[in-house]
Write a structure and sequence with these properties.
This protein has 491 residues and is α/β, with parallel strands linked by helices. Helices cover 40% and strands 13% of the residues. The structure holds glutamine. Residues 129-132, 155, 175-179, 207, 318, 432 line the site of glutamine.
């Protein structure tokens, strides 16, 4: 009998549509898999067994009634715990939201439900999506299915690990500085950050509003594109949502799968010299560049002189926005309240709640952001970082006058051992070297598995112009058609 957990999302959808299996069977197979492995992986913070089975039954009933099903109907999906889910716990990996059951669904979750996908549960993440390893979750780290002693990337490590461990064929992540792409890279899965504003932030718990972008995670490029199509597109409830249709990402993934990149010009960023990256990662990257050239792509070098300032600019802008966004967690409106014994002032209760509810990385960011925004320092730090952001955007604009897309490794290193970088925040921030420029610019980027180094997955990143998300899918699918997909050792 086919192991339903090993199929791609496209295969599951076809099987459900043709009556070869039922949505309930598929869902149960994934729930069983979660029960079998998740005590070791810790990908899920909450499994919604009843909700999932009810959603699956509804799909089966619609099919039995002869209704037309969407392209992903009956396919299970795991959702990063940063998106609100009506009546289902949403913690953002933080103690401060422990026990909070939102009264509404985020737009993405609404669209997932409307498409007939089956939400299995909520996945683990670094607290408030701040981190690159999922070790900053208040609920314990997620373990990489390739090697349980290593990190699954972050902040959306739970979503990527759920895919690699065959607990779900699809997942949702959010990417502020790389949190979809990095976990994809180090778990051998695909992660796509759409154009900023191409997916709705309504119901996405805000970290850095000018950067946050929810997007699809999957084991194949086509599956990611199918999910992108379902979740993307204009949302009047998000003022930064782009009022344009989703680019034809599914068509582009299918075109790319033919393995022909004739006429496509790809740029390797001169300033990404490999300094600070592992030799094994750079070797896998270089081999993939050759593979892309063999498929017909023209490869040139492109200079982006301001990319080297992306990391410091991001680590001022993101904490600044977070210091403002996280002010709402005051012990009054949501979740945790500490010290409210009837004798303490509101301010004392707020302070005790925030002291108890936030972890050290979140506190560090709130302090950096508050400092950078304070009068007297604003121009020197936040204002300056915004100017750098403009220069980085200009680098991208000029690069895309020369090439169709830029390529780089996704992460400078493969999955590192749990605990290896937590003692020095700067070491953790370095994981974002290649992913952050795209967020500052607002364009789309995808990570696709491109090889192994020391037996661990390496990802290749493709960065495209804003609203040209289809382009990155074409290149990613072409690469996948030649290097294949990567399967971790059995759990
Ligand atoms: N690692 C980056 C950070 O810690 C990016 C996180 C993200 O994309 N959510 O801020």
């Amino acid at each position: 009998m086919t192991d339903l957990t090993r199929l791609t999302a496209a295969e599951v959808a076809d099987l459900v549509a043709s009556g070869g299996t039922s949505a309930v069977e598929v869902t149960q197979a994934h729930l069983d898999r979660i029960a079998a492995v998740d005590d070791r992986v810790n990908a899920f913070l909450h499994v919604d067994t009843e909700g999932a089975l009810a959603a699956a039954r509804a799909v089966d009933e619609r099919r039995a009634a002869g209704e037309e099903l969407g392209p992903l109907a009956g396919v299970p999906v795991a959702v990063k715990d940063v998106l609100t889910t009506k009546g289902v716990p949403t913690t953002v990996g933080s103690k401060i939201l422990e026990g909070w059951r939102p009264p509404y669904d985020s737009t993405l979750v609404q669209r997932l439900r409307a498409a007939g996908t089956v939400m299995l549960g909520k996945t683990n993440m670094d607290e408030f999506a701040m981190g690159s390893s999922t070790e900053y979750s208040a609920y314990g780290p997620t373990h990489n299915p390739w090697d349980l002693s290593r990190i699954p990337g972050g902040s959306g490590g739970g979503s990527a690990a759920a895919l690699a461990a065959y607990e779900a064929p699809l997942a949702i992540g959010s990417d502020t500085g790389g949190s979809i792409r990095q976990p994809g890279a180090v778990t051998g899965t695909v992660g796509a950050k759409p154009t900023y504003g191409g997916t709705s932030r309504y119901g996405l718990v805000a970290f850095s509003s000018s950067l946050d972008t929810p997007g699809p995670c999957a084991r194949t490029v086509l599956d990611a594109a199918l999910l992108h199509q379902v979740i993307g597109g204009h949302d009047p409830r998000d003022s930064t949502s782009i009022p344009q249709p989703v680019p034809d990402v599914v068509g582009a993934a299918k075109l790319g799968a033919t393995g022909d990149l004739t006429g496509v010009k790809l740029g390797v960023v001169t300033e990404f010299t490999g300094e600070g990256a592992e030799p094994g990662v750079m070797a896998a990257f270089r081999e993939s560049v050759e593979a892309l050239a063999k498929l017909g792509a023209e490869i040139v070098e492109v200079s982006c002189p301001h990319f080297k300032y992306a990391l410091p600019a991001y680590y001022l802008i993101a904490p600044s926005e977070c210091s403002s966004n996280l002010a709402r967690f005051d012990g009054v409106r949501f979740g945790l309240r500490t010290g409210d014994d009837g004798n303490r002032s509101l301010e004392e209760v707020m302070s005790l709640t925030r002291e108890a509810g936030f972890g050290p990385e979140v506190k560090r960011r709130i302090m950096i952001g508050t400092y950078a925004l304070s009068s007297g320092y604003y121009d020197a730090y936040y204002g300056q970082a915004q100017k750098v952001r403009t220069l980085i955007t200009r680098d991208f604009t000029s690069a895309f006058e020369q090439v169709d897309a830029l390529i780089s490794p996704t992460t400078p290193f493969v999955a590192f051992p749990i605990g290896a970088r937590t003692s020095d925040p700067y070491q953790m921030y370095l994981a974002d070297l290649f992913t952050i420029p795209t967020n500052l610019y607002g364009g789309p980027a995808i990570s696709v598995p491109c090889g192994l180094s020391d037996g661990l997955p390496v990802g290749l990143q493709i960065m495209a112009p804003t609203m040209a998300d289809d382009r990155m899918y074409r290149v990613a699918a072409a690469l996948e058609s030649t290097v294949g997909t990567f399967t971790p050792p059995a759990l």
